[in-house]
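Structure (tokenized):
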């Protein structure tokens, strides 16, 4: 399926009126646990962040370009050249502002930043217009072609940005199938760029999350405030069920939430301002992804966008009211799943997986199991905390035996992330009209599910699964795999008793198989996925107890002698 539709589109920045009080970026860093990375020497120096939205960054602000780390990449398809814009400057400041007495440093203050401008004209109330070329050029140049420190398009994958943040949204909620969605999904799955997008400021409800935040392969970010130190989702933060290919209510967005209320940031010139909106929650998550990628690059861990998303979601903190709506228990004796707690909605409609927690993300990413060597393995033994990047083939599954006894009545959390396959081909940065010669393809989309089994003393699965995340699962018809089209599954389950357990990733079906960019259908299905998990092991004897036993033994030997 080829997509070639995008005219002059009205979009908007995602900011709302600020409140009377405000929090600094230093306070935000404390709230989200960023200092865990700083204490380990990780500040973003090994990554390049992209900010693609209406205007450019005011690099003249002394907090943003004292050391030449910010580049405004020219866009030949905007008629007014490089235009510093307040909103873009604020968003960029959240990510990379250098330390200052007013607000403190940006979340990834050591990173470089490339700014891409997409607006062709500006309207009232933050609205602006784009064209196919004005959007396509900066995203593909920064995310796929690669740009060096002088703004030269190199074609070198090593010059690609690591993360792209977009704090803007359009009104298309029909099914995440515009060329905008295809473009954002393509850069994640094919160019390896972690794509982070604001969820919007329309509040809660079906289809309040529009393009590009309703794309499959992005991290959509909602906003929280802070009440007596306890974050809560703001009333304006968009979230709820979104559509897929005009099929209503098939997925849940946002994916995660972060501070977005009255944050003090650099603005045009040399000043500072306080603003609110999911616009400012998204760059917090984008910069946090940059910290994680910086850590990965420095330690040789995978920085695949699926891994980044799985780790951030699995380590998030559940806020008050978090729920997987519709979760039910399937009793024995009927259907494919028996005696199983089934969650048809993997994420909460307001807060996704929860509030970003970088302390837990650091621990998750650096756990004892930090990727199992080799792809395509179907039976693995892993620690009680960890992650893996793997593949599962058609009609098969991958078992992860947690090779230690887990403590009953404690929480197991596991997050499975995979991507929709979408391709953008034919783009040339030197073409006078690249949108006319670029093609946008839906390729295929597989359905993966996540299960939890008990295991025997030999590590073999016992009986039926006891918990499952099956997006769209229909309790009235358990043999039907459901109509959920999520690309995330999430288990949040209290273990019934001490014992050994197996997590299973299963390929269930292929939802869509379009005529792809190679002119053929997908005949050899295998899906790449990331899985992150965390559970509490049954404690063994403490070091103090063992030491005491050893000393007692020594004393006994002396007394005998």
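Design, position by position:
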């Amino acid at each position: 399926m080829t997509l070639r539709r995008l005219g002059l589109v009205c979009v908007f920045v995602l900011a709302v009126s600020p409140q009377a009080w405000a929090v600094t970026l230093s306070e935000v860093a404390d709230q989200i646990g960023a200092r865990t990375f700083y204490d380990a020497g990780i500040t973003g120096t090994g990554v390049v962040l992209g900010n693609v939205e209406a205007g450019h960054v005011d690099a003249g602000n002394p907090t943003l370009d004292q050391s030449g780390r910010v580049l405004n990449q020219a866009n030949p398809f905007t008629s007014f050249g490089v235009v510093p814009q307040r909103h873009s400057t604020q968003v960029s400041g959240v990510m990379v502002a250098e330390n200052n007495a007013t607000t403190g440093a940006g979340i990834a203050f050591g990173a470089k930043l490339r700014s891409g401008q997409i607006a062709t004209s500006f309207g009232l109330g933050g609205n602006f217009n784009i064209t196919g070329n004005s959007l396509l050029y900066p995203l593909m140049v920064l995310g796929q072609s690669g740009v060096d420190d002088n703004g030269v398009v190199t074609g070198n994958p090593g010059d690609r940005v690591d993360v792209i943040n977009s704090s803007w949204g359009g009104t298309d909620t029909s099914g995440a199938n515009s060329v905008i969605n295809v473009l954002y999904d393509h850069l994640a799955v094919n160019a390896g760029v972690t794509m982070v997008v604001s969820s919007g400021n329309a509040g809660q409800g079906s289809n309040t999350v529009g393009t590009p935040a309703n794309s499959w392969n992005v991290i959509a970010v909602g906003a929280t405030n802070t009440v007596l130190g306890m974050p809560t989702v703001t009333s304006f933060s968009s979230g709820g069920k979104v559509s897929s290919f005009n099929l209503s209510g098939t997925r849940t967005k946002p994916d995660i939430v972060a501070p977005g209320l009255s944050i003090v940031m650099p603005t045009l010139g040399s000043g500072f301002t306080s603003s609110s909106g999911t616009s400012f929650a998204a760059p917090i998550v984008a910069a946090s992804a940059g910290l994680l990628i910086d850590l990965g690059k420095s330690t040789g861990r995978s920085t695949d966008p699926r891994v980044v998303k799985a780790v951030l979601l699995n380590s998030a903190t559940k806020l008050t009211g978090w729920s997987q709506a519709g979760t039910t228990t399937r009793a024995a004796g009927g259907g494919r799943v028996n005696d199983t707690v089934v969650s048809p909605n993997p994420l909460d409609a307001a807060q996704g997986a929860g509030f970003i927690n970088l302390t837990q993300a650091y621990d998750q990413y650096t756990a004892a199991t930090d990727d199992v060597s080799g792809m395509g393995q179907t039976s693995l033994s892993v620690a009680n905390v960890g992650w893996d990047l793997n593949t599962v083939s058609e009609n098969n599954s991958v078992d992860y035996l947690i090779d230690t006894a887990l403590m009953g009545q404690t929480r197991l959390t596991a997050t499975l992330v995979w991507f929709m396959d979408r391709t953008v081909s034919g783009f040339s940065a030197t073409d006078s009209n690249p949108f006319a010669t670029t093609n946008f393809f839906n390729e295929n989309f597989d359905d993966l599910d996540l299960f939890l089994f008990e295991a025997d003393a030999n590590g073999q699965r016992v009986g039926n699964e006891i918990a499952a995340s099956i997006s769209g699962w229909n309790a009235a018809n358990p043999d039907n795999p459901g109509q959920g089209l999520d690309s995330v599954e999430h288990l949040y389950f209290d273990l019934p008793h001490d014992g050994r357990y197996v997590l299973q990733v299963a390929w269930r079906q292929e939802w869509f198989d379009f005529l792809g960019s190679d002119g053929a259908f997908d005949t050899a299905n295998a899906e790449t996925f990331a899985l992150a998990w965390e559970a509490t092991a049954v404690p063994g004897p403490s070091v103090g107890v063992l030491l005491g036993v050893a000393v007692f033994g020594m004393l006994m030997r002396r007394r005998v002698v």
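Reviewer-requested clarification: The chain has ten helices and 30 strands. Residues 278-299 form the longest helix (22 residues).
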